[in-house]
Amino acid sequence: xxxxxxxxxxxxxxxxxxxxxxxxxxxxxxxxxxxxxxxxxxxxxxxxxxxxxxxxxxxxxxxxxxxxxxxxxxxxxxxxxxxxxxxxxxxxxxxxxxxxxxxxxxxxxxxxxxxxxxxxxxxxxxxxxxxxxxxxxxxxxxxxxxxxxxxxxxxxxxxxxxxxxxxxxxxxxxxxxxxxxxxxxxxxxxxxxxxxxxxxxxxxxxxxxxxxxxxxxxxxxxxxxxxxxxxxxxxxxxxxxxxxxxxxxxxxxxxxxxxxxxxxxxxxxxxxxxxxxxxxxxxxxxxxxxxxxxxxxxxxxxxxxxxxxxxxxxxxxxxxxxxxxxxxxxxxxxxxxxxxxxxxxxxxxxxxxxxxxxxxxxxxxxxxxx
Length: 370
Ligand code: NPQ
Ligand code: MG
Fold this sequence. Notes:
The chain is an alpha/beta fold. It has helices at 61-78, 84-90, 98-116, 120-123, 143-156, 171-180, 199-205, 222-231, 245-254, 270-282, 296-306, 320-323, 354-360; strands spanning 2-22, 25-39, 43-47, 81-82, 130-132, 134-137, 160-164, 185-189, 212-214, 236-238, 259-262, 287-289, 339-341, 361-368. It has two domains: 2-117 and 352-368, Enolase-like, N-terminal domain (Enolase-like, domain 1, 2-Layer Sandwich), CATH 3.30.390.10; 121-341, Alpha-Beta Barrel (TIM Barrel). The chain has 13 helices and 14 strands. β10 (236-238), α9 (245-254) and β11 form a beta-alpha-beta unit.
């Protein structure tokens, strides 16, 4: 049991090395909230996966900032002595807002594990010390540019290529990549841009021998995904539609997907991501670790999550240099065979570099006593 003395919120901005375009828009910078939680025993860090606009999800930085500052941080501080298992309960008075909640749930867990000298991966029952890395390739201005970038990433050793698609920029582009690389693990992610009327697109994609098709349809519609899954051979994977272990169990029971993308922030934190992992494992549904172009803080968390045994497919966990000229932590790099080492230090095993953190900071506010 320990008491949270203070919570520091920080909005940071890092330029991306290249723009990242998805079916919902283009990003040139990564902008996110970092929380630093100080307890009686240690400090911990959490990274919020919300973005600058409510597009991927209904949460966004401006809203998450207020939820964190005015509701969640004060509740955590006034809760008195707590353990990691209590924090989700402290936050149930706020409905939804999983990304904001995850920030403090993870930061408190990090502080708790640092005080104990235990790593997050060990705490989660991780069974591997390196994880396989994939890369998510944004929509490119041309097929030629796409082929060039895919070749660069394959040259760096990535084990799986995921292509972002949207209506009109799908079958031809995917075919071209498959033709150039007949044997790679290749998947696509539509970020909810299609409807069941587009089933023909997915029938055509069946010919491309894809590892999976991620979130083709509306973010709230699992029934339609079940209908689409029945029409095609490729495995569907759900991302946006899965916000909890309950959602995962329901989607699997309905036949809406055969693979699940786990993002700790989307499901409300590391503890719920373990529950999603466990539900999927019990149904023999493989999972993999999604990504939100996190800084090194969030990436370290993702690596620990991906060390759990049912994470059997390569994650959207890429090297720091795929995203940023300079990360906030020591850079993460790809090692042999496109794998990355799971941090072994206490908690997430990483902390931001104070100078780079200061340089990236747009805004800071503190809640509670120093
Ligand atoms: C996905 N990630 O799997 C997401 C899309 C994404 C690596 O493809 C801020 C807000 C940053 C939303 C980065 C990848 C984001 C974001 C990526 C969504 O669908
Ligand atoms: Mg996705």
